[in-house]
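#lab-general

N.A. 3:47 PM
ok so I finally got the sequence cleaned up, no stray characters, all 428 residues accounted for. can someone with queue access submit it? mine expired

B.Y. 3:52 PM
send it over

N.A. 3:53 PM
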Amino acid sequence: MAGDRKAFAEETAALDGLLVKGRRLRARCEDAARRVVVQEIPSADGQVQVRFEDTGCDASVEQKDLAGLMPYEESQETVTGPMSAEEAACIRREVEELLAVGDAQAAAERCSWGMEQLGLGLEGEVQRKVLVLRGPQVWEGIALQAAEAGVSKVRFVRLLEGPNMQQKKKEPHKMNESQAVPKDKQLNSDQIWGAHLGKLGHEQLELQKSRARCWMALGAFQRGVFDCATAAAFCRLLAPPPPKRAPGFQMTIPLLVLSFSVVFARQFLLGAILAAAAFAVDHVAGRRAKAASANPALAEVLALRGRIKLRQGLQGLANAELRAAQDELGPLEPGSEVRRLQAELERAKKGSKEFRRAALAPKDTEKRTWRHDAADKVLAGTFLLAQEKDSIPNKSTFGDVLAEAEEDNQEKLQLGYMDYVGDGFHTM
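B.Y. 4:20 PM
back already:
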């Protein structure tokens, strides 16, 4: 108890030195944290007059609800060139720290800063791997030349993410049709995003996922879905190629041939043992092959996208994302995002109010909160803004459509509505 009182006294003393007019601090508000600017020094009752940076509104908060900013938030950093994997990992840890204190806006800004630096470097004659935005699809490409006027020549390589991606994987003929590679094309720089491989690529993927979590916390669900689509493209870009040869070919077939030879020699018991061994080897090899072709990182991204869709009131689409994530996992154990989605879907089935409201209404009709203002102030980057520009809004709200639906047909309506507004089944 004495230790707690001492720690509280030290924290209060440290805060007193920060309570200066014009000082930027962080305040607890509505189970979140928001940055504020001190307007007046504390009054006798411990109230501090502040102005919220996200909305510009003045308010009175208790001194105990205030805290200083992180050191890296105070520094004026500028983008000077590509960063190393260690620097990217440091940015990711800082984002996780900001999310832990509840400041999703500051975390989103930190993510965007790191992602912008990772996406730099398209200058002059280049041969660089990039992600290319083509309508609702994200392609792997090679930047061949970057012009000064903001236009780059790009060679398309393969489709990484697009509407109905998971469904097309189960129907190869549709996948082949959708993957007809376009010809080289001159594209605006906002449709191109520099991509990295190896450890740096992993950190780039983690920053993309972290920003999607930030958008989810701020209620900017569509932005979260767009970032998940880009993260899914990164997962497929970083994934190793699947095994090309049937796993049982090397050992199962020879064992079966040997067992038949032994049976013909009337060694029935030995033949049965060899046949059983052949099938056991095939089973084990098959599981290993499925594990080798599994993409647990992609499963986590799909589950995160399902959690965002669940908060949009789209339980049917969230279930579809869970099934897609489980397909990507194969025999592997589910990760944290998959487990969270499973738990949230269970709560939604029990009627949790957290997931009842559909959040697909257009901006001019939905009730805006400080979270929306905070999300709008984040410099999201040209690639995400290009994704937003390509999405087609609809005057009808999902609530209007759902109100006329029969209860047993709601999932089909959810899927149909998402297709109608250009959202797609699995991707948007």
